Structure formats: C-alpha cells, structure tokens
Amino acid sequence: MAYEEKLYAIREVSEITGVKPVTLRAWQRRYNLVQPQRTEKGHRLYTDLDIQTIRQIQNWLLKGVSIGKVSQLLQGALLEPGELTAAQTELEECEALLSALAQLNRGKAESVISTVMKEYPLDIVERQFLLPVIDAVDKVKGPLRSLQKGLLQSIMLTKLSGIMESENKAAHKGRCLVVSFDPVGSVLAWLWALTWAEQGYNVTFLDGVEDMTGLQEHEFLAQYSAVALFSHRSLAENQVQTLHQLVSRFGEQLFLSDVLQTLTQQ
Questions:
Q1: 19 occurs within a structural domain
Q2: Which of 128, 143, 169 is where one domain is finished?
Q3: How far apart are CA 199 and CA 167, in angstroms?
Q4: pLDDT tens digits, one per residue of 77-136
C-alpha cells in the first residue's frame, strides 16, 4: 500500500508555525524559501518537510539573522565571525526606518514597515524592529522627537488596523475581547491585539481604557471565547485588585500581557 503524504493548506501551516500566510508567500516569492506544491487551482500545499524548513527559518530569525541570509544558511553556508552577534539586537531595516522618520518621509517609512511586516513573524517585528526603533526615537533630543513619534504611530496604527481587519475576516476560533490600559494609540497594545487575530480569533479591540472595573459584571462578556488584557506599565492599586478579581472570574478564558501577569503574582 503506497504511503500518501499529508499536505497542508497555507492557513493550516500558519496555525501550526505561527507564521502569517502573507509572510510565507513573501518568503517564497522574494527569497525562494519553502516552495510548496500547487493544486490545479493554484492553491499552495505544504508537506511536513516544508513545515520543518519553516521551523528552521524561525530559529535563524530568532537568533537575529536577517531573512535575506537565511537561504544561504539553509544551504549550508556559514556566518562570518561576529556576524551573528552583530545581528542579534535589531533588523537591518531599523536604520532605514529611522532615517525616513528623521526626514518625515512618510512614503519611505511606510515602504520599510510594509516590507518588514510581510517578511517577518510578528514577534520578530516587535522585538528586533519596532522596539529598537521606538527606543531610538525616544532618545532624539528636542521637539523633533515628538514629530518622529507621531509619524511612526500614525503609520503603524494604520498598518496594524488594516491587518487586523483582514485577519478578522478569516477568523474561525470565536470572538476575543482585547482591552488595552495604555494610552490611546499605543503601538505595542495594537501589536498585542493583532497576535490574537493571527491566532484565528475575531478581535474586538478597546483602546485606551482607563478603568477595568466595568469588566467585572458586564453581562455581554459571555459572547467572547477569550478576554485578553494589555498594559505595558504598572497600574494603580485599586486596578490591581480588580485585576485579581477578573482572574478569579474568567480563569483560563482570561489572558494577560507580561506586565499584568507579573502584577497578579505580587
């Protein structure tokens, strides 16, 4: 009896690996990475070996290697001495984005951000691209800092909201309420919300919420399969008490960002 190889649609591979379909397509088209089979209608079908290759790519990216160099590494090439150490903190595109922000060049900044968002998984985008850029902009002296931060925020929120809208249309895991207690327009909060959309939830995002007590007895929360709370900063004592109560009420249905998780353990 012949062995029939299991094949996976691109959405299935995305769920298994956590890599967005748009990123898998970009890896294939631009870098010739992971060449799936095709159905008669042109739909991509991936093998277990393809998924293994995707895992290898993810491991290299986590080590700070740019996507452009991964193809050579998969073929057995070696990094130059010190090359990996130099790459571990940020993507090469950080410099290009910072230059565009300094010039208030929206078109160039949008182009850099769009490319990175397509070519890298969301965790890499946050850790090796956005966080270094945000940190660098925060160090800009004088009134120019505010201008550059405003441009970055404007572009990122437009981009992230567009991606979330697209992901919501493909949702299949039920509804997720994501609540941010950071100031309105926090890029990190939007990234957190997008992670839930990428996991297959239809996300309702509440931005800039100042008081979480309204969540305690809201009668319509039962319509959500999951509730995810985000804050990148500490909360007032009364809000921390409410947070503990929410944890008790929702149990495994409630998910917390790292800062909030730490507050519940104190």
A1: yes
A2: 169
A3: 9
A4: 655 545 554 445 789 999 999 999 999 999 999 999 999 999 999 999 999 999 999 999
Can you say whether the dihedral through the CA atoms of 140, 146, 147, 148 is positive or negative? positive
What's the CATH code of the domain at 191? 3.40.50.2300
Amino acid present at 152: L
Contact 228, 177 (CB under 8 A): yes
Q: What is the pTM of this model?
A: 0.86
Which residues span the domain enclosing 33?
Answer: 1-79
pLDDT digits (tens, 9 = 90+) for 137-179: 999 999 999 999 999 999 999 999 999 999 999 899 999 999 9
**Do 26 and 53 sit in the same domain of this protein?**
yes
Strand order in the sheet with 8-9: 8-9, 44-46, 37-38
